[in-house]
Every structure is written in C-alpha cells, then in structure tokens.
Design a protein that fits this description.
Elements (H helix, E strand, L loop, with lengths): L2 H39 L7 H25 L5 E3 L4 E3 L19 H12 L3 H14 L7 E3 H25 L9 H13 L13 E3 L14 E3 H4 L3 H11 L3 H15 L11 E3 L5 E3 L1 E2 L6 H14 L2 H18 E2 L2 E2 L2 E2 L2 E5 L3 E3 L5 H8 L2 H18 L5 E3 L4 E3 L7 H13 L3 H16 L1 E2 L2 E2 L2 E3 L4 E2 L6 H14 L12 E3 L5 E3 L17 H9 L9 H13 L21 H9 L18 H25 L4 E6 L7 E6 L12 E9 L24 E5 L5 H10 L4 E5 L27 E4 L1 H13 L5 E6 H16 L10 E2 L1
Helix pairs in contact: 1-18, 1-20, 2-15, 2-16, 3-4, 3-5, 3-16, 5-6, 5-8, 6-8, 8-9, 10-11, 12-13, 12-14, 13-14, 14-15, 14-16, 18-19
Bound molecules: 1-deoxymannojirimycin.
InterPro entries: 6hp_glycosidase-like_sf, EDEM1/2/3, Glyco_hydro_47, PA_dom_sf, PA_domain, Seven-hairpin_glycosidases
Keywords: Calcium, Endoplasmic reticulum, Glycoprotein, Glycosidase, Hydrolase, Metal-binding, Signal, Unfolded protein response
Subcellular location: Endoplasmic reticulum
Length: about 800
C-alpha cells in the first residue's frame, strides 16, 4: 500500500468532512459569540418615541417612493422594472422563464398593494386605486399563471381591499359608490383557478391558463407542484366562500389540505417539497421550512386561527414537533429527508425560512424564535443584506437579495410579542440597509449579488404589499393605525383577513371550535414581556462578556461533553479558561484568568476536538466514497468524496459496489444508445459507469446506465473547478419513481478530475468501489490498526451488494 496515497486521500476527505462537521458544531458557538459581540458592541437601547416616529415616516416615504415609481412608470403592468424604469408585461418583456408565471397582465403590483394604502391611512389614494383596478383589470387572458402566486397576491389582494372598502364605508364614511366589485373580481378569478383542482388527489396543479383552464396544450404534461404551492390556498378560498356564500372554493381548498396531510411521512411526520398531483408520489423528499414548503405550515396554523377548526392546529402541532425534532439544529433550520430525518440533506438555508420565527411567535414558542431570528440578524450584519441562501457557517450560497419581507415580518411579530426594543433596532438597521443598497431613482431594485451590490431590474409586488408594510407596522403605535390589526390574520402575502370571517360560516363548515376563544384571546393580547424569553436569552450572553453576572461555580472543571452553548455558566467558564469564541470579523485573542484555568482550557479544547471527530463520523453518514485501488492486489485504496442520490438504493453499513470504471458513451448519457460501439469495447455490463452532468436529468442517466448493465453510476459535475471542499454536497433528486436499483453518486469536478487523472495514468482498468465515506474511514482505520498491531477486531467491509 502506498501510505502516502492513503494518507493523502484521508486528509482530503477528512479535512472537508471535518470542515462540514466543524461548522455544525462550531456554528452554534459562533452564533452565540456573534450574539455576544453584537450585544456588547451595541447594547439594546430603548428607542425614543421621536426616533420611532421618524422611522415610521421613513418607512412610509420608502413605500411612496416605490409606489409612485410603479404608478408613474409601470402601471398597468404587473411589475415595475426599476432600472429600466418601465413596466414588465407578460408576453412583451423578454421572458425570464418559469419565474414569469407570477405575471398575468392583471396589474399585480397595484392589486397587491391596495391594503397597504389603508394601513398608511391614505384613503384618497386607496379609493383612486380601487377605481383603477375596477376599471382596468381583467382576467380573460390566454396566459398560464401560477395558481399559488395568483391566489396569494391577486385573490388575497382583492379580498382584503374589498373588506377594507366596506370597513371604510362604515367607519370613515367614504367610498359610498362601492358595491362589492372587488369581491366579484376575486370570485371570477377564483373560478378561473378552479380547473387546476381537477386532479385525482384533489391537490391542485401548479399552473393554469386563465382563459382555457387546464385545456392549454402546454399544461398537458403538468403533474408536479410544490407543497407550499398546493397548501397555501385555504385562507383566501375560505374567505372567498364565506364572503360570496359559494362553498366551492373552501371545499376544494380543504380537500387539498386533507390530501396533503395524508402524504406526510408516517414515521417522521415530515413533508417533502415537490409532489405529483396525480399519483401523490413525492418527487423531492427534502424537508425543511424554507422554499417549497414554508407557507404550508403557515396556513395550517393560520387556518386554525381564522376558521377555528381544531384539526388544523393538531396537524400543525404534529408537523411542528417533527420540524423541531429533525430540522431545527440550535438556531439553524436545515433540511433533512422526510424518510431519513436523522441526516441533514443540505448544509445551507434559504432566506424564505426567515418567516419561521414569526410563525413560532404566533404559535407561542418564543425561545427558538428569538434564537433563529438572532442568527438571521447576524447573517444580515455580515453581508449587509440577507442573501437568498447561506451556509451553516453563514457564507453566501446564493448571493441575490430580492427585498423579501420575511425577516422584517418576524422582527415585527417578535417586537409585538415582547416589546423588546432590540427588535426596533433590528428594524432600523434593516430599513437603513434597504435605503443604502436597494434604493434607486425609480423605486427599489433587488440586488443581484450582495457581495458586489449590483442591482437587478426587478421589484416584486411583495416589496409593497409586505416588506414596507411590515416596516411601517413595526414603527407604528396602535393609535397610528385605522384598524386594530390584532383582529386580523395576515395571509402569507400580508393581506388582512378579519377573524370575524369565522362567524360568516354556514352549515357546510361547522368545525370543532372548543379552543377558539383561547386562540382569539392570544391573538388579541400581547403576552406580557416579563414572561417571555428574549431578554432572558440574550442578557446572560451579554453578562458573560461583561462579567456583570456572578457565576455559580461548582468548583468542577467543565468537560466538553457537558458543554452547552446555551448555558450562560458554561460560556462564562469557557471564557475564564481563556477560550474566546470568535465571530467573523472579530479575531480577538482569549486570555485565561489563571494558569490553572488555562490548563483546563487546553484540556477542554482537546476534548472538543475528540468530540468533533466522533460527530464527524455521524455527519459523514450521508457522504459517499468513490474509492479506487491502483495496486494489482487491491490493497491500497484512496477515497474521493461524492454525494448520494434520493432515487437510488442506499448503501447501508458495510455494503459497497465494486467494478472497473468506464466512461459513458456519449459522455452525458442521455441518448438511448449508451455504450454500444460495435466492437463492444465500451461494454458497460458489470462496470461502474461515469457520466457527465447535463442535457438530461440525473435519474434518466441512471436508468440508461442500469439498462446498459452498469453496476453503479458516477455523475461528474460539468462546472470546471467545482469542488466538495468549497461547495455543499447535496443529494441528487429523482422524479418520484423508484425504479433505479444501482447506486448513483455525484462527484464535483475537482474530485472527479483526480479520478480521471488516475484513470488516464493507469494501464489496466481501474477498480473502484462505491460505499459510504464513514465506512471507508472505519475500514482504513481498522487496517491501519491491524498494521500497527493495535487492534484485532477490525472488520473489512466485505458485504458486496
Ligand atoms: C411572498 O410572495 C410571500 O410571502 C410568499 O409566501 C413567499 N414569497 C414571497 C416573499 O418572499
């Protein structure tokens, strides 16, 4: 065995694995340290009434800057393009692909914005805008739109504006001409969405043609939708039914929710993110709280609040417990697979999950809400704006920033629940940042990359309906507002639906409402801040640094095993031992209080490293190894890291697949004729096939490889320079059909290049073995032990699949 080869490969894989694992373990510490540093640098000060009023007015000005830019340069288009300063029209403006499914040429930004005008107290502009919508907006267009987006932005916007128009008629004595036109428009639009619900499961299609329903030929193959897309209908459809007296909408939306609930994983209680509306099969089994699933959870809880049906609370609670058990990792929320919930399926988070703390506040679970929010605040401070996705060590994964509302929304709910001025300070920072990085002469522009600050020609309608609305609400006092917002539920698009809608229910919807009063009480009354956590969570951390909080010492040395990052005494003890937890940008050195405590600190760090090693073994479970032997006796193995797939059998424990490696022909393995040259030289039977990523899906490559007789498939990345050392490893997705029986793994370009170089150098066919990385490590450690005579119990992984 070439020991150099072995140790090289070990160090390559271990260092990356350790980096991954370290981030898991240390991110908690870094997070705590970051909280410390932010609190130390800027202790929360009460915000004066004057400053708060100024910020409220600034939020209002921001809204008008964007609103006027849209009205003067883009209306009646769906969106403003703030850099070109003109409207974005479907079918006219160059297409952005699927993203344009939100556009229906129905003046979306104005409809989405109507109720914000009421909250701002601008009844004159509201009345004018309602007249414009009634006059200009129509839905009879041959356009395919997203059912979810049309529902939350358009139906929700129309309903909320209708409710507020009637409210203003009664309370402010204006708009007497209004005769329910907006409700009629919402009903018409609701009917245009209904054909999407004609599926065997009752779960709606993702898209529908506004004029032709599902008859559009482009929709023939339609079958996949996301969990959030299908599960974010009920609030609007129930309100539509209650207000119009037509039960069809609510009936369909309940049925979709029931069908979704049946698809949960019975073991974990988790949901995936993409499913087939006809078969009910899962297409993506990743489960988190961000993109693809976010508002499904939100609507379970809020449906209970709005409609009073206990079953939605029970379902929410089941999912919530599952999320807190498997997805929640300290302050972080990391996707797992619904059917393998103990292993994380990715090591980054998306910015959509920033709504989660707000939902936790509403459901009464404040402590984790505070922690996740604080983490997000750190991410914001590190990058100025929260990037669309960021890794567990808070580095940028996707650099865009779309001016999304979720973080501000959670900040608002946390402030409402706690009264802690920290959240006003956070809101101030968010507001100033938007002013600095997003304001342009014609509105506010999304940021293409938070590292460069480069703008994108995009201002989504939610900037006006949510982002500025929540900012304004955060800095407003209740007496500034014409309505009591506690009597409303905010939809996922921040449209206001009154709790009184429950009373409009007819005999079709008589729910179990035993706890309804409790729920309403909770929504109406902000819990007293002294019962709540934020200060309790954050203050000990501050005290730990400032030393103002006397520590109760047991005289015992704190061991790494017992260490809890959330325990203030532990943090203090670690600090006294001279260990400083470093937040990015803060490289200050720790100094032990005494020689003894310094020794204890060293011991502590050693234990921590040991623990990290053990943890690394567990975290490695998902990582696959492509190991190769270059000696004839197949003794010396070198492993390169690879990622698993969701659609191929899992290699469990010591199982592995072995074969000579061969390139696919054609390399991308997309055509029917795979590895079929006449002389049979590229015969794939019994071989481990390598195909390049691209041109067709992972799973179709796998099917072709299987058909060609390969025993395993390695898909190598087509992006030069990509590497598992710098990029998160991920699991390849399938299409919901479990017909792939051979293991399939993914290698980034740098790792594959190493394998390719050996393949080139090596005269004989190169033998490779696909197995779990953790098993490879165990195998090698055991071999090393045997060679050194230190262990006799080492097992060779000999269970060929
Ligand atoms: C909004 O349209 C809604 O909040 C939706 O639920 C998620 N995406 C955007 C905002 O980011």
């Amino acid at each position: 065995m070439s020991s150099t080869g072995m140790s090289n490969s070990t160090s390559i894989s271990f260092s990356s694995a350790q980096r991954l694992v370290f981030t898991f373990l240390l991110a908690l510490l870094i997070m705590v340290a970051s909280v410390l540093s932010s609190d130390t640098a800027m202790p929360t000060q009460n915000m004066s009434h004057k400053e708060r009023t100024e910020l409220r007015d600034e939020a209002r000005d921001m809204f008008y800057h964007a609103y006027r830019a849209y009205m003067e340069n883009a209306y009646p288009a769906d969106e403003l393009m703030p850099l070109s300063c003109k409207g974005r029209y479907r079918g006219v403006t160059p297409s952005r692909g699927d993203m344009d499914d939100i556009l229906g040429n129905f003046s979306m930004t104005l409809v989405d914005t109507l109720d914000t005008l009421v909250l701002l107290g601008d009844f004159t502009e509201f009345e004018h805008a309602v007249k414009l919508v009634i006059r200009d907006v129509q839905f009879d267009s041959d356009i395919i739109v997203s059912v979810f987006e049309t529902n939350i932005r358009m139906v929700g916007g129309l309903l909320s504006a209708h409710i507020l128009s009637e409210y203003l008629q009664k309370q402010v004595d204006v708009m007497h001409w209004y005769k329910g036109e907006l409700l009629e428009m919402a009903r018409e639009l609701g009917y245009r969405l209904l054909p999407a619900f004609n599926t065997s499961t009752g779960i709606p299609h993702a898209r529908v043609n506004l004029r032709n329903g599902m008859k559009d030929p482009m929709l023939k193959k339609s079958r996949e939708t996301c969990t959030a897309c299908a599960g974010t209908i009920l609030l609007e459809f129930a309100a539509l039914s209650r207000l119009t007296g037509d039960p069809i909408f609510e009936v369909r939306a309940h049925a979709a929710m029931d069908a979704l609930w049946k698809l949960r994983h019975r073991g974990s209680d988790l949901m995936g993110t993409v499913l087939n509306v006809h078969s009910g099969d899962w297409v993506r089994r990743d489960s988190g709280v961000g993109a693809g699933i976010d508002s499904y959870y939100e609507y379970l809880f809020k449906s209970y609040v709005l409609l009073g049906d206990d079953k939605y609370l029970a379902r929410f609670n089941r999912h919530y417990n599952a999320v807190m058990k498997y997805v929640s990792e300290g302050p972080m929320l990391l996707d797992v697979l619904m059917h393998r919930p103990h292993a994380k399926s990715r090591n980054f988070m998306d910015s959509l999950l920033a709504f989660w703390p707000g939902l936790q506040v509403l459901s009464g679970d404040l402590k984790p809400a505070v922690q996740t929010h604080e983490m997000l605040y750190q991410v914001m401070q590190m990058h100025n704006l929260i990037p669309e996705a960021f890794t567990v060590d808070f580095q940028i994964h996707w650099g865009q920033h779309h001016l999304r509302p979720e973080f501000i929304e959670s900040t608002y709910f946390l402030y409402r629940a706690t009264g802690d001025h920290h959240y006003l300070q956070v809101g101030k920072r968010a507001l100033k940042t938007l002013q600095q990085y997003a304001k342009v002469s014609c509105g506010y522009a999304a940021v293409n990359d938070v590292r460069t600050g480069k703008h994108e020609d995009r201002m989504d309608s939610f900037v006006l309906s949510e982002t500025f609305k929540y900012l304004f609400l955060l800095f407003s006092e209740p007496q500034d507002l014409i309505i009591n917002v506690d009597e409303f539920v905010f939809t996922t698009e921040a449209h206001l639906l009154p709790l009184s809608i429950a009373q409009l229910g007819n005999a079709t919807f008589s729910f179990r409402q035993s706890d309804e009063n409790n729920v309403l009480d909770f929504m109406r009354t902000c819990p007293s801040s002294n019962k709540l956590f934020p200060e309790k969570v954050r203050k000990p951390l501050r005290n730990f640094i400032t030393g103002s909080c006397p520590r109760t010492s047991s005289g015992k040395r704190l061991s790494a095993l017992d260490f809890q990052a959330s325990n203030a005494d532990h943090l203090r003890a670690v600090y006294d031992m001279g260990i400083t937890m470093v937040s990015v940008g803060d490289r200050s050195q720790g100094k032990a209080k005494s020689h003894e405590e310094g020794e204890m600190g060293l011991q502590f760090m050693q234990e921590m490293l040991e623990l990290t090693k053990i943890q690394s073994m567990n975290q490695l479970a998902q990582l696959q190894a492509v190991a190769y032997a270059t000696d004839e006796k197949l003794q010396d193995w070198t492993a390169l890291m690879a990622g698993p797939s969701h659609f191929s059998p899992e290699l469990i424990g010591e199982q592995f697949v072995e074969g000579d490696v061969i390139l696919a022909n054609p390399l991308r393995a997309c055509g029917e004729k795979l590895n079929q040259v006449e002389d049979g030289a590229d015969d794939a039977r019994g071989k481990v096939l390598v195909a390049e990523r691209g041109d067709c899906t992972f799973v179709s490559k796998a099917r072709l490889a299987q058909k060609a007789g390969a025993v395993a498939l390695i898909v190598c990345d087509n992006v030069p320079g990509s590497s598992g050392e710098t990029q998160p490893m991920f699991a390849m997705s399938g299409d919901g059909t479990d017909d792939v029986l051979i293991p399939v793994v993914f290698m980034y370009n740098v790792e594959f290049s190493k394998l390719a170089a050996v393949m080139k150098r090596y005269e004989h066919p190169l033998r490779v073995r696909i197995m779990q990385m953790v098993e490879f490590k165990r195998w090698q450690l055991a071999k090393e032990g045997r060679q050194n005579g230190t262990t006799t119990s080492a097992q060779k992984p000999d269970r060929e699949l």
